Amino acid sequence: MPGKLVNKWYQRVRFNLHPLDPPRAWRIARGACSSVRFQAILLELGIRSVIDLRRTGSSDQQAGFINFDCLRIEYHNIHLRSSDLPHPQALRQFVQILDQAPRPLLLYCKRGKDKTGFGSALYRHLVCEDPIDVAWQQLRYIPYGHRRLKHGGPYWFRKLVEEAAPADLRTWIWQEYPRIFAERVARGEVTPITSLGEKLPLSLEEPDLEAQSL
Questions:
Q1: How far is it, in rounded angstroms, from Cα 43 to Cα 131?
Q2: Does this model's pTM top 0.90?
Q3: How many CB atoms lie within 10 A of CB 1?
Q4: Distance between CA atoms of 94 and 79, rounded to whole angstroms?
Q5: Pseudo-torsion of CA 137, 105, 59, 94, nearest 10°?
Q6: Which residues on neighbouring strands pair with residue 26, listed in sequence order?
Q7: Residue 47, burial from CB neighbour count under 10 angstroms (0-12, 13-18, 19+)
């Protein structure tokens, strides 16, 4: 169980630290924490795996200030885009990690409210089996600070899911979503980007659409 460090109310406010599926999963704003403070929180929570949802250039892996191997923490960096629909490959990787990563798990991005909110909503829906309207409460302004303006991706994705009403969301993500994403790219409705923020001029005919790394 987390000790006094993470139970202090000011830690929750300052670092946007919240239980997601306690004691199995948490969420936090990485940009608010120094590396020393972040490591202290990781140890206090007993975290065994983390998912860094930022772009590669902003990630802890790129910065190299924290040795996750020495901390015996499994580190993953997946850019889960919130400003537009997420790339199919990134979404697949994220779901796979949710299913396989050791717990306790920590999700984070810079501010812990947009990408982290999206990832947290997916976690609650896929892992905890919350109804989608309940799971998407992870994107509230209070207490998480999420603002929908410029971060429509989670809502566009939710609309697609609600329209499709798949019997199994994981199967839909693997089999149907890549086609839907590619069609929207072809129509110019979505501009896919790499994890470094570079635009990818993909189309329906692009042979390795699903292999692009985001």
A1: 32
A2: no
A3: 8
A4: 9
A5: -70
A6: 19, 106
A7: buried
195: tokens are 């994890």
What token pair was written down for 77?
């960096």
Whose structure tokens read 């239980």? 19
Query: Which residues, including other chains, have CB under 8 Å from residue 18's CB and lie 6 or more apart?
Result: 12, 26, 27, 28, 143, 144
Is omega for the bond preceding 143 within 30 degrees of 0, making it cis? yes
Q: Check if the beta carbon of residue 78 is closer than 8 Å to that of residue 94.
A: yes
In CATH terms, the superfamily for domain 4-208 is Protein tyrosine phosphatase superfamily (3.90.190.10)
Q: What is the DSSP string of 8-49?
A: SHHHHHHHT-EEEETTTEEEEEGGGS-HHHHHHHHHHHT--E
pLDDT 10s digits, 187-212: 999 988 765 555 555 443 333 433 33
